[in-house]
Amino acid sequence: MATIDTILSETRVFAPSEAFRKQATVSGMDAYKALCAKAESDYEGFWGALAKEHISWHKPFSNVLDETKAPFYRWFYDGEMNVSYNCLDRHLADKSNKTALIFEADDGKVTKVTYQDLYHRVCQFANALKAQGVAKGDRVIIYMPMSIEAVVAMQACARIGGIHSVVFGGFSAKSLHERIIDAGAKLVITADEGMRGGKAVALKSAVDDAIGMGGCDCVEKVVVYKRTGGNVHWDAQRDQWWHEAIIGQADTCEPVWVNAEDPLFILYTSGSTGKPKGVQHSSAGFLLGAILSMKWVFDHKADDVYWCTADVGWITGHTYVAYGPLAMGGTEVIFEGVPTYPDAGRFWKLIQDHKVTTFYTAPTAIRSLIKLGSDLPKQYDLSSLRLLGTVGEPINPEAWMWYYETVGQGHCPIVDTWWQTETGSNMIAPLPGAVPTKPGSCTLPLPGIIADIVDEQGGPIEKGQGGILVIKRPFPSQLRTLWGDPERYKNTYFPAELGGKMYLAGDSAHRDKDGYFWIMGRIDDVLNVSGHRLGTMEIESALVANPLVAEAAVVGKPHDIKGESVVAFVVLKGQRPTGDAAREVVAQLREWVGKEIGPIAKPDEIRFGDNLPKTRSGKIMRRLLRSIAKGEEITSDTSTLENPAILEQLKETVK
Ligand code: WTA
């Protein structure tokens, strides 16, 4: 993978083609600059006009932004609306027969759903949820495979003012347990099993295990969508099949009008402590961010076929699968399976078969597909594509170029979109008909997003220097708080050192002479493994919860495909193992972390020491561990270490 130096010496620039520019929603640099200038000259007027234009309001708002309780901001806060109404009902007049969803199952079976169908399915399920006792403000956990039903479940919650919290199907029962309790969920929606790459993935049994761990008295019902028909344990009091729950339910359902600020969802993400953060999003502000980025960044048009490959368990799957494309009245592809099944041409075949115009995926997927067949895309007809996007981690220029030339055949702009679970929608990304792109840079902020790079006190940095990425003014799609933990929200995102009003993203970045942003990585203890956020502390807590383990420290190490891999340094309670014994413990601990958090968090490498490198005050020197993990020579002074000899031991890998 490219180092930051090669990225910063990248000089290639790709201006939008004349043809693309001409048809683009925001056409040309002057149009982009005009939007930015408008935002700067009248910030509230800018956002207020956009919110009026793009959202259908039940009761119009008269106030745009309330900063009196900063950093607890409120937007459009005396308005009333409903997100599901905005995604479905408002398209029925002229798009009822338009395809909303093209679902392709793992085995290739395709199901298409029109706006009319989707509306009825959402309404019917919303009525079923009401019948199960779900009311406005109740939390609903959704633990489902990629499916039409997952989108229906999310939309149905939104329709009745329920707050969903989707938990990625790859998270373990233990992680699910923690989230059910933190959210105080009344209902859990799941499936018997999911299908990925020809294999069934148990979901219902994880829900049983999670609830079985105790403390989940809040959960009254579990609704189960039958995907595979696999065997499941059944609790007749608590469990209810999806297909039975909807019997007799009307297929229309008056939306519950909610306040613009009422929470739409909570999504848990990793931070720098062991406990995941429940990022809470609003209804109207979130929706506005989704719509504007669909329009500005994805240049969405009525005849587009949009495909975002993210799972609904992540923020990308919320904004760009469950809400954004539907709010636009667009047609989108939803894919159940994996990019490598039945072979590494699956993505390209899907693009060909469904005539996808806009394709949005993660750099890690691109890198792994290059490795599995850099010529494979040429065997498919990809001529429908007109725009490509990436998200989740920095993309190295080589992967960018391959994406541009081999997938986009040199005529599709690439939108490298920087944003986060907390920001709700794209923040820094090229407007493809305006902003020339550079491989590896997410380019310039969206209009109205006042992003900057500052030093640790929030002050300006010297030109050309790196610093910490902040957003200086509140924006509609940002998180409102952390569920149940407003103090943590304040301290994490609006630290006093930065004046308490700037949003601290947690990334470091650099700006080049054209003002382009280059993201350099996290400044906290968060890893980015295959585009998934993992807290080092989370993995460490999981490891030390194992009876064999006395101490653990986890660091990231650059990885060609995954971006970063997880390296754990472990001190066992017993003797430091070697040979077969070490291999045996490594296997056990990886399995353990898989159960504690989920398979995505399994350390790629585990090394054993009699101790960890610590300062005399007992602080673990992670910087040294990162160097050891990378196999770098340690040149810095290690004399402040309590136990310098330990470094040699930790260089040994378990083979
Ligand atoms: C990283 C995903 C470089 C970044 C939407 C951020 C990126 C974290 C990019 C958020 C990008 C996301 N270029 N880095 N285009 N997009 N990141 O919350 O470190 O899962 O802070 O949201 O991913 O990850 P999250």
Indicate the topology:
Layout lengths: L3 H5 L9 H6 L5 H13 L1 H12 L10 E2 L7 E2 L4 E2 L1 H5 L4 H4 L3 E6 L5 E5 H17 L7 E5 L4 H13 L2 E4 L6 H11 L3 E5 L1 E4 L2 E4 L1 H9 L8 E5 L13 E3 H4 L12 E2 L3 E7 L7 E6 L1 H13 L8 E4 L6 H13 L3 E5 L10 H9 L3 E4 L1 H11 L13 E5 L5 H11 L6 E4 L33 E4 L11 E6 L9 E2 L3 H8 L9 E9 L5 E6 L3 E4 L2 E4 H9 L4 E11 L3 E10 L6 H18 L8 E4 L13 H9 L15 H5 L5
Parallel strand pairs: 4-17, 6-7, 6-8, 8-11, 11-12, 16-17, 16-18, 18-19, 19-20, 29-30
Antiparallel strand pairs: 1-2, 3-13, 4-5, 9-10, 14-15, 15-23, 21-22, 22-24, 24-25, 26-27, 28-29
Bound molecules: 5'-O-[(S)-ethoxy(hydroxy)phosphoryl]adenosine.
5'-O-[(S)-ethoxy(hydroxy)phosphoryl]adenosine (WTA) binds next to helix 13, strand 20, strand 24 and strand 25.
EC number: 6.2.1.1
GO molecular function: acetate-CoA ligase activity; AMP binding; ATP binding; metal ion binding
Keywords: Acetylation, ATP-binding, Ligase, Magnesium, Metal-binding, Nucleotide-binding
